Amino acid sequence: MSNGATLDRVLVRAPGKLNVFFAVGDVQPDGYHDVASVYQAVSAVEEVVATPSDDFTIAVTGSVDLQGVPLDDRNLAIRAARLLASETGYAGGVHLVVDKHVPVAGGMGGGSADAAAALVACDALWRTGLPVARLHDLASRLGADVPFALLGGTAVGTGRGDQLSPALARGRFDWVLVTDGEGLSTPVVYGELDRLRAQRRPDIAPAAGDPVVDPHVLQALRAGDAATLARAARNDLQEAACALRPALADLVADGIGHGALTGLVSGSGPTVAFLAADPDAAAMIGERLAEEGHDVRHVHGPVGGTRVVSAS
Ligand code: ATP
Questions:
Q1: Ligand 1 neighbour 186 (Cβ under 6 A)
Q2: Which among 120, 152, 102, 122 has a CA at the least distance from the CA of 57?
Q3: 148: which DSSP letter?
Q4: How many CB atoms lie within 10 A of CB 171?
Q5: CA–CA separation, 65 vs 58, rounded Å?
Q6: Best mutation site among 104, 145, 177 for ligand 1, i.e. most ligand atoms within 8 A of its Cβ?
Q7: Which atom, in ligand 1's list, is nearest to the CA of 115?
């Protein structure tokens, strides 16, 4: 029972993301790439419950295929909890129960959302009360997409994607996600992009020295204009993901044939996000794709960032 000094249970929600724009710069000497990204948090949401424990343990459930989710110290949520404990000197541990609704290894930042949720949940459970700026600092040490999962909404990310500035967005964007197929490894997709660029293929966008966001994307988001967003949206990793998984290119064409305004591989894939004109159009596109046997879900964005839903 909580007595005001301690908490027994904290429930936190954290959103998955889509990249509505993703430009990738040249590979850096350390193997990383600078990017210019526009993130949108979407209504595929992870729930994390934190309860007190002497150790750091985790259980995972959810509506997505959970294969590939580690249940030990490799799990990003556990790494987040351990990092917070070591930074604050907290001597105890936590048991985390993660309810996953973001496809695993789908380029939608599910692990990053779990890490953000674990940071916020443990900070509340342990009453360590870190200022937001320090939480963001810990988040960026855990992974490039973790700070955005904390922030949510719509944001431009530069550097490794973790230097964030919030962007204005009006209205609601409806997306149909196709999440079938095994996950794609992010480093492998970047490696394929480097390989394709080295071949100077005409269909591959060359590396921008200093990648920047196309202003048309930001205008479309500010105006809440899905058709304009569809024309300006772009992901430099898309060709690489399609080269590794040729069925993705057919899937994109298929969804557009069913009325989607565009089909974007999300991050490093293999989730494909189809932008629809409105919720009814999304429902229809989703139905057609499901009839063809695809694993489909309808989400919308932008939604808010990581937040405590209940604490007792
Ligand atoms: P990224 O682009 O950050 O590699 P993603 O968004 O494509 O990731 P995630 O669902 O975050 O996909 O998982 C990527 C990999 O991270 C998984 O294959 C898994 O091995 C590992 N992982 C670690 N912690 C988690 C977690 N809590 N949930 C899912 N995967 C996790």
A1: yes
A2: 122
A3: H
A4: 12
A5: 17
A6: 104
A7: 27
**Ligand 1 pocket check for 187: Cβ under 6 Å:** no
Sheet holding 296-301, edge to edge: 262-265, 272-276, 173-178, 296-301
Q: How far is CA 262 from the centre of its chain?
A: 19
Highest mean pLDDT among 1-5, 85-89, 181-185, 191-195: 85-89
Give residue-wise pLDDT tens across range 199-234: 877 777 767 678 999 999 999 999 999 999 999 999
Average pLDDT for 22-39: 89
Indicate the pTM of the whole model.
0.92
260's enclosing H/E stretch is: none
- DSSP 3-state assignment of 235? strand
CA distance 65 to 188: 21
Q: Are 138 and 112 in contact (CB under 8 A)?
A: no
Q: What is the pLDDT of residues 99-115, one digit of tens each?
A: 999 998 888 999 999 99
Q: Which atom of ligand 1 is nearest to the CA of 108?
A: 6
